[in-house]
């Protein structure tokens, strides 16, 4: 029984290593990587602490400001989708 358990653990480690890091499974798993004028995304557990941060109301180009883009999960990685 212990050999089967050990084999299962080793197999899961091998599979996880081959697949690479899984940041997300769905779009809701991703958030902006910075508090202001974000142009990239990270997994929710790596979200920046934006408490007390004040951002300008400027809609900077090539960012997700003002609905110009959003975070999406693509191939298990969080990426910014910027509308050009």
Protein model, in words:
This protein is an alpha+beta fold and about 80 residues long. The chain has one domain. It contains 1 helix and 4 strands; from the N terminus they run αββββ. The strands form 2 sheets. The chain has a two-stranded antiparallel ribbon. Strand 3 (about 70-75) and strand 4 (about 75-80) form a beta hairpin. The chain is elongated.
**Beta fraction:** 15-25%
Please state the structural category: alpha+beta
The value of Rg in angstroms is 18 Å
Biggest pleated-sheet summary: 2 strands, antiparallel
How many β-strand stretches?
4
Oligomer: single chain
Task: Write the topology of this structure.
Layout: H1 2-19, E1 30-32, E2 41-43, E3 69-74, E4 77-82
Antiparallel strand pairs: 1-2, 3-4
What is the compact description of this entry?
The protein has 84 residues and is α+β, with helices and mostly antiparallel strands. It has one helix spanning 2-19; strands spanning 30-32, 41-43, 69-74, 77-82. It has one domain (21-82).
Key words describing this protein structure:
84 residues, alpha+beta, two-stranded antiparallel ribbon, 1 helix, 4 strands
């Amino acid at each position: 029984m212990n050999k089967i358990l050990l084999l299962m653990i080793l197999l899961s480690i091998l599979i996880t290593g081959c697949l690479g890091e899984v940041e997300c499974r769905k779009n809701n798993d991703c958030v902006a990587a910075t508090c202001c004028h974000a142009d990239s995304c990270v997994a929710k557990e790596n979200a920046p602490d934006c408490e007390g941060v004040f951002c300008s109301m400027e809609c900077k180009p090539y960012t997700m400001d003002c609905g110009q883009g959003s975070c999406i999960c693509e191939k298990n990685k969080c990426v910014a989708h910027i509308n050009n």
